[in-house]
Write a structure and sequence with these properties.
single chain; alpha/beta; 9 helices; four-stranded parallel beta sheet; 21% strand
């Protein structure tokens, strides 16, 4: 199985956290065949060289993805049609980067490279989890980041996720079907016992120990 890490950034100025994810994959016995980075404004050659010392790298600048034209032309797709995939007025006129447009460049490169498993990571996350025991001690616990994704894919799903440390996209909430949603997001362990407590601040769930997670 060919595995790639994908990341989208405005400015590619550091090889981290990609190096951290490569280290994590190596620790748990996973080979990363390629890293795909798409940037819109600037790039650091030292960051590129640092990644190239570890694995193959595809570095793509938005509005300058020449390879895509050649690959799509082989399939009979016209340059005009390719332009619709690779050009955004929001970027050229306002410096804004449509999220899906950006990520699609990573997906296209993964398809061109025959990647079997593409894992997106963000520039502000780490392949570890911040934990806290009952005494209040905090520590970082490494997780098998790639393995978690691979196990999800092996179960027959097309899109999966893994634990990590970084921003939390899940706001405090409680609604019918929440358990099923969290299971699909692989967040069921963190939130299985989280319940809304009338004594908690508005909108904040508490777990069985009365603590806000």
């Amino acid at each position: 199985m060919k595995i790639a890490l994908g990341m989208i950034v405005r400015d590619f100025i550091s090889a981290h956290p990609l190096i951290d994810f490569l280290d994590n994959a190596e620790t748990y016995g996973h080979q990363i065949d390629r890293v795909i980075v798409v940037y819109s404004h600037s790039m650091s050659r030292s960051a590129l060289f640092a990644l190239e010392e570890r694995t193959k790298v595809s570095l793509i600048e938005l509005h300058n993805y020449r390879r895509a034209y050649g690959e799509f032309n082989k399939l009979g797709v016209s340059d005009k049609s390719v332009d619709a995939l690779l050009y955004s007025e929001l970027l050229s006129e306002h410096g804004l980067i449509p999220y899906g447009f950006n990520r699609n460049h990573v997906i296209m490169e993964a398809l061109f490279e025959d990647i079997d498993l593409l894992i997106f990571v963000d520039s502000d996350v780490q392949p570890r989890v911040l934990r806290k025991n009952r005494e209040g001690r905090l520590w970082f616990d490494d997780v098998d980041f790639v393995g978690s994704h691979a196990r999800g894919i092996a179960r027959g799903v097309d899109i999966t996720t893994s634990d990590y440390s970084g921003y939390n996209i899940l706001p405090p909430a409680h609604f019918n079907g929440m358990d099923a949603l969290l299971y699909g997001l692989h967040k069921e362990i963190r939130h299985t016992e989280a319940k809304v407590d009338k004594q908690a601040p508005r909108g904040q769930p508490r777990n069985k120990n009365g603590c806000i997670p």
